[in-house]
Amino acid sequence: MALCASPVWALSCRPPDPVQAFIKADQDSAEWVVAKGQFLVFERDLPKGAAVIPGTFTGLSLTSRGFTEPFDTPVQIEISCAGPWCGAVRPDVTYIAFLRKEDASHRAFAKPCPVWLFTNPGREEEQMLTACLRGTCP
User: Fold this and answer.
1) pLDDT at residue 25 above 80?
2) Is the CB of residue 132 less than 8 Å from the CB of residue 19?
């Protein structure tokens, strides 16, 4: 009897960490906005692989009082892949999004592992990010 093994592929991601994303964005020379809300995209524009698609992010941006400032902006959503695993956005999900400012719009990065987009945020994440904006990251 002959056995043949095929390779098994798995994507290993670190646990999502909005505080680390805040620190990384804060150290970047680019301007970033932290916002909580939803992506408005046309279902027909959602790709099956790597792509850049247009959309709108609508919600509230982070201030020293929390997510309190109305925020509605055009975004370019950059979806990247690692092998067969691709990032994604869904219009029916609430995100904390780190959006990089670019000319007249912002860019969102949807990676296979959550680095800049965090789904269904809770009060704890909001409080930690507010503390970071005030200069006291936990």
Assistant:
1) yes
2) yes
Long-range Cβ pairs for the range 99-104 (8 Å, 24+): 99/32, 99/33, 99/34, 99/35, 99/57, 99/73, 99/75, 100/25, 100/28, 100/30, 100/31, 100/32, 101/30, 101/31, 101/32, 101/33, 102/76, 104/74
Amino acid at 58: T
Q: Residue 43 — φ and ψ, nearest 5°?
A: -55, -35
pLDDT digits (tens, 9 = 90+) for 107-133: 999 999 989 999 999 999 999 999 999
The pTM of this model reads 0.88
- Three-class SS of residue 32? strand
